[in-house]
Amino acid sequence: MVMKAEKVIALHKIHEAAVVHPMARIGKDVEIGPYAVIGENVVIDDGTKIGAHVVIDGWTSIGKNCVIFPGASIGAEPQDLKFAGEKSYVFIGDNTKIRECATVNRATGEGEETRIGSSCLMMAYTHVAHNCVVGNNVIMSNAATLAGHVIVEDRAVIGGLTGVHQFVKVGRNAMIGGASKVVQDVVPYTIVDGHPAKVSGLNSVGMSRAGIPIASRRSIKKAYKLLYRSGLSLAQAIAMIEQEVDSCSEVDHFLRFLRNAERGICRGRKEVGE
Fold first, then answer.
1. Which residues does 135 contact at the CB level (< 8 Å), separation at least 6?
2. At CA 43, angle to CA 138 and CA 95, rounded to 5?
3. What class is the 12-208 domain?
4. What's the whole-model pTM score?
5. Residues of the chain with CATH 2.160.10.10
């Protein structure tokens, strides 16, 4: 009796020229291109595609259905003089795209992490430094860079060639114009640009696309006017918003962000020189 050979179904597609450490954990239907290098402590979840010449190192975990384009570097040691070889992490969510030659460094500090959420687009030559936390649905355009410890909330858009100073927070649904220098916190739902970045208005289109209800958008607009058009100090504006603006989750977040703006906030153009 002749036994028929069983059909072997490949769980993933790894190019013969790729270098994958035998201890790396590779999920189902993962594709790894030629000359990619995958380190010992890397975890790549199902359906993710890794392009040619990508280097993924350190204690890095990448979610499902991500696409990492050629030349990207993820999980390398941080560009931080304080780093002393400690064990630290990079976590990337599901459905995120990281384009050509982008870099994501692992954190400084034992057990610390650099994190990028789900459904983000990190365009070519973007840089996410150590200890950054990037939310979901964030877009960073070509050559935008984040210094260490930056926080970027959900659905923010950062224009190309923009530099964001260390420890700055970029609020939810904010938009930063291209080639900006961001040295203070960017208030949620606002548009900023310039050198240094100044507020030019509300990101009305972004709020609409995010599905924020009309009533909430009206409340945000009222809060924005009290903050930027009333001549009040930050503390006074917070108090007035609490008293005069109808509460909703978006306004509550707006206020919470203002209360925790340790570096100060990007001010409006009309306030320059005051």
1. 117, 152, 153, 154, 155, 156, 172
2. 30
3. mainly beta
4. 0.95
5. 12-208
Spatial distance between the Cα atoms of 17 and 128, rounded to a whole number of angstroms: 28
**CATH 1.20.1180.10 region(s) of the chain?**
212-268
* Token output for 223: 């809060």
From residue 135, give the alpha-carbon distance in Å to each of 47, 51, 188.
21, 24, 13
CATH fold for the domain made of 212-268: Udp N-acetylglucosamine O-acyltransferase; Domain 2 (1.20.1180)
- The dihedral through the CA atoms of 192, 193, 199, 203 has a sign that is negative
Going residue by residue through the chain (274 aa), what tens digit of pLDDT does each one get?
Answer: 444 545 444 678 999 999 999 999 999 999 999 999 999 999 999 999 999 999 999 999 999 999 999 999 999 999 999 999 999 999 999 999 999 999 999 999 999 999 999 999 999 999 999 999 999 999 999 999 999 999 999 999 999 999 999 999 999 999 999 999 999 999 999 999 999 999 999 999 999 999 999 999 999 999 999 999 999 999 999 999 999 999 999 999 999 999 999 999 999 876 543 4
Contact 133, 151 (CB under 8 A): yes
Structure tokens at 246: 């109808």
CB 203 within 8 A of CB 173: yes
